[in-house]
């Protein structure tokens, strides 16, 4: 049985990520084997790899070509260009992916573009849809210079919302506007966003004081979806002020749970079609060979890359 190459955690190396020979995938009947062409990085998996045990294989997002179709007949046939999502191990030459987590890539969409869609795109899409129609509603998106935030601005505007984005650095403000934000608040403090509220939907990925202030900006029947804690996990909540808003909701979002009810295949297909139509434009800031994984992951971990980082196989 021939081996394949994959990114593996090795704590004995300086940057912890190495490319090693591993056994090829042994797919279940409902899984297709994908020959990977591109992968994208997410802060969660990179952060976890910095403390993971030896042998762990990171990676959630991938795009490639079906090399072996699922034995049960589900999913696309051999040779189909696809984008997929797995709980771990996507950074490899071949990956077994459940067919409910695969979607066909339109011909006009590149593998690099498609690889940015699973975690960031599905998180933005599914989070925005948690509180009904956004048509004519006000939406606040914090951390708008990141993968989720950038795509979230475009999707929210496409859904008919008035979009307010929060970014930490002035140089990222125009990126948020280009993504679809009507208004942009700059700085660590999002207090200025209150002037454009109250909000029907808030997608919050920063945590700490940012989440505290975001909750105070909800309108009646509004929802804040929390999906990250890049600034800290501890939050202070004034419960009286929160319940006085009237039916305000705080929703804890984790994609691995959401896809149980909303399969990744359906969401990925919608996202890929939006890219093909020129509506959704993935923000790829770094595109490099996958041999550079250790260096790119370190830069990503250090927050030196604001958009998406894509590695090509």
Q: How is this structure best described in words?
A:
By secondary structure, the chain is α/β, with parallel strands linked by helices. 28% of the residues lie in helices and 28% in strands. The protein has ten helices and 15 strands. The chain has helices at 43-49, 111-115, 117-128, 147-158, 173-179, 208-215, 239-245, 255-261, 264-276, 293-301; strands at 4-9, 17-22, 31-40, 61-68, 81-85, 94-98, 102-104, 138-141, 162-167, 183-186, 199-204, 218-226, 249-252, 284-289, 308-312. Strands 3, 4, 5, 6, 7, 14 and 15 form a seven-stranded mixed beta sheet that branches. Strands 10-9-8-11-12-13 form a six-stranded parallel beta sheet, sandwiched between helices. It starts with a strand and ends with a strand. 48% of the residues are buried. The model has no long low-confidence stretch (mean pLDDT 94).
